[in-house]
Structure prediction request, 269 residues.
Amino acid sequence: MHDGTEPDHDTQHEPRRRVKGIYMVPNMITLAALFGGFYAIVMAMNGRFELATVAIFVSMVLDSLDGRVARMTNTQSAFGEQMDSLSDMVSFGAAPALVAYIWALSTLGRWGWIAAFVYCACAALRLARFNVNTAVVDKRYFQGLPSPAAAALVAGFIWLMTDLEYPAADVRWAMFAITLFAGLTMVTNVPFYSFKDLSLKKSVPFASIVLVALGIAVINIHPPTVVFVLFVIYGLSGYAIYGWRKAKGRPTSVISTSTDEPEERGLHE
Prediction:
């Protein structure tokens, strides 16, 4: 029986909106990396600096996996990219700065917190610049020291000194110098090799596997020393590449100075 009311045809025929979700696996890895940075801060507040520094290195490993897992499973997303940047800011920006400050820099008064803040601010600037310039950078190089490597310099020094039982007060100025070096190097235009042109899917000579085994053996001799030395070498390698390019008359920047991405896409591919 007709009751005089007309059905809402627009409502009946309106297609259901697809509810967007997030991909679980890569974002869980990113959250685990974020937890590593948070755990490092908590452990430093409790005086457990060896655990704090190891947590930062664990975050580095997880950070290197989330992007690869997303690409392998075809689960990349804009949400994941933003989540990864925020996680990096905590794990490789705030956490190393706070751990260094609590461990040694606090004894330097205002100079200590200035060094910690400079590092933290440079990490934020480095991540923001990376997000803006992704489309125009030469994929073989990073523009400035990547934030995980900067965090490894700071955390590696603390790990080494803690393992050797050096009093923090005796090396506080060394911590000050390393913190500033790592922070400021993040925002330079110095090129650092990214290793992104190395493919794990390609076959390699048998000798490469032997070298990997030797590398693992060398690291196990004394992990704090070997890891710190490796990152010191990497932290200086960018300046070596910069000097070599300068001497050869080649361009020293791996990116255009402008950030107008639409007009510059593919310039460095």
